[in-house]
Amino acid sequence: MTKEEKAQYIDDLAQELSQSNIFYLADTSELTVDVINQLRRRCFNANIKLRSVKNTLLAKAFDKVDGKDFSELNKVLSGQTSIMFAEVGNLPAKIIKEFRKKSERPVLKAAYVEEAVFIGDNQLDTLVAIKSKEELLGDIIGLLQSPAKNVVSALKGQGGKIAGILKTLEERA
pTM for the whole thing? Predict the structure, then answer.
């Protein structure tokens, strides 16, 4: 790779990093080509972009991104690194966890999710438990609707009883 190609690669990677609020760094070493292709297929089907990167170029791309602090992620840049860009915060973690039922790899090095940094493979279960925006909105809407439904049903129930009592009193008079 020439200097110009490296510079262009770093610029492209920095642009992807600045536009993405969610990415994972994983160690995919020791995986065979067939297994890597299976992982790529699963990522592609889940709308996750997976690519292998050189650590030095990734570190330079981190430095080029304005407005985001990736300094903690530089600590994990050793060995083979693959980067997973995603739209949903917990989806790469779910894929890694599911994939590791059959293989020891990929190992989670770090994750950057909406400005929060998670370092180490021990964070995988925490990342799986993170809810997506859609799930959180659904929970909030459900919580907001629940008291309103209770009030409406109570008013309907009580309203029927009051109307019945008034009708009975009217008939007696």
Answer: 0.77
Q: Which two tokens stand for residue 39?
A: 């992982």
If you ran DSSP here, which 8-state letter would residue 21 be given?
S
CATH number, domain with residue 19: 3.30.70.1730
Number of domains within the chain: 2
Q: Which domain holds residue 125?
A: 3-130
Q: Is the pLDDT of residue 148 over 70?
A: no
Residue whose structure tokens are 């929060």: 116
Q: What angle do CA 129, 135, 138 make, to 5 degrees?
A: 145
Q: Tokens standing for 126?
A: 């925490």
Give the residue among 84, 74, 79 at the shortest CA–CA distance from 17. 84
CA distances, 28 to each of 36, 80, 125, 155 (Å): 8, 7, 19, 59
**In the prediction, which pLDDT does 157 show?**
60
pLDDT at 11: 94
